[in-house]
Amino acid sequence: MTRIAIGAVLVASAIWAQTDQKTSGENQVRDRGQTPTLRERPGPVNPAPITGTLLDAGCRDRSIVNLKRPPENVRNATPPNMGGADRNASNTTLTGDALQHQVPDLFSRQPDRTCAITGSTRAFAVLLANGKLLDLDEGGNTLATEAVLDTPRGRDMLNGRAFGFKPQVTIKGRQLDNRVFVEQLKFE
Questions:
Q1: What does the pLDDT read at residue 52?
Q2: 20 or 173, which is more confident?
Q3: Which residue in 66, 90, 95, 182 has the most C-beta neighbors within 10 A?
Q4: Cα dihedral sign for 68, 163, 137, 182?
Q5: Domain coordinates of the chain in residue numbers?
Q6: How far is CA 164 from CA 87, 135, 150, in A?
């Protein structure tokens, strides 16, 4: 009788183990490694207009006081010191070609401490009236670059005739946390 009881226990445990196990397909997660689309992300479904000041997102000092300051005027800045040589020193002579690379657009491509857009800006952010700073997505960075190039001020900046500026913009897009997924961007 003990053999029958042991056999019954083994059969019962084998049946229980079969029903409790999951197949390999049931263990797989369907969306592993996939990036959710805008419609799958939480947040507003319809794009909302966002108005603010367009800034350089690569700026280090993102304090509200710094972001609201007017752009620096680099025209009054002196060119960087060439190799530690003092131009006014009597024993130092610089040939004419030593300063040839100090062209006007070099100064317009230097980063601005107030986060103004310059010729070196590659990533953009928008400062809202309430002081919140939102970074633009990659598509928004492309649209912002095109908008800057379409303005006379932006073309002058890239040609060395103007310096950093902070234009007012209206953006149509979806906001998710501190990022805006831009569909449309225009200067005011």
A1: 96
A2: 173
A3: 182
A4: positive
A5: 39-76+103-188
A6: 27, 19, 15
Provide the mean pLDDT of the chain: 76
Number of other residues whose CB lies within 10 A of the CB of residue 99: 12
Q: How confident is the model at residue 104 (pLDDT cuts 50, 70, 90)?
A: low
Burial 65-90 (b: 16+ CB within 10 A, else e): eebebebbebeeeeeeeeeeeeeeee
pTM of the predicted model, to two decimals?
A: 0.63
CA 20 to chain centroid, in Å, comes to: 48
Span 120-144, average pLDDT: 95
Looking at this protein, which amino acid is placed at residue 100? Q
The candidate with the shortest Cα–Cα distance to 121, out of 150, 142, 102, is 142
Q: 170 exposed, middle or buried (CB, 10 Å; 0-12, 13-18, 19+)?
A: middle
% helix / strand / coil in the chain, to the nearest 5? 30, 20, 50
Task: Report whether 128 contacts 178 (CB < 8 A).
Answer: no
